[in-house]
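Whether sequence alone determines local backbone shape is best considered at the level of individual chains. The sequence in question and its structure tokens are set out directly beneath this paragraph.

===
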Amino acid sequence: MLQNVSAMMRVISFEMCRQCAECCKNYPYVELSNFEIDWLAQVTGLPVEVFTNPKGKVIEEYFLKFKENGYCFFLNENNGKYSCGVYEYRPEICRSFPSKPIQKESCYEICKHL
């Protein structure tokens, strides 16, 4: 199966990602580095509290905030097509997705049906 997944990952297009965006939905624990938080605040002009959730009360670490529907705070939807509102500035975890075999397999299974 993994060999098929690797082959499929080479042909998953930007358009397929725009129809799916599953990696930006219901994935509530996207950790942000201090650099990413500062960068996102700077480029969006938003206060940090608007797009982050504190990881805990004792240490200052944050997760990216998700909307009530489970979508990433920066995920935009227009007529069934999705786009990232901060694509050029998105966090490293988003840039590298899918990086793990289970993530690649998930993308493969979803994209087979698009």
The CA atoms of residues 59 and 80 lie 39 Å apart. The chain has a mean pLDDT of 78. The chain has one domain: 2-111. Residues 2-111 form one domain.
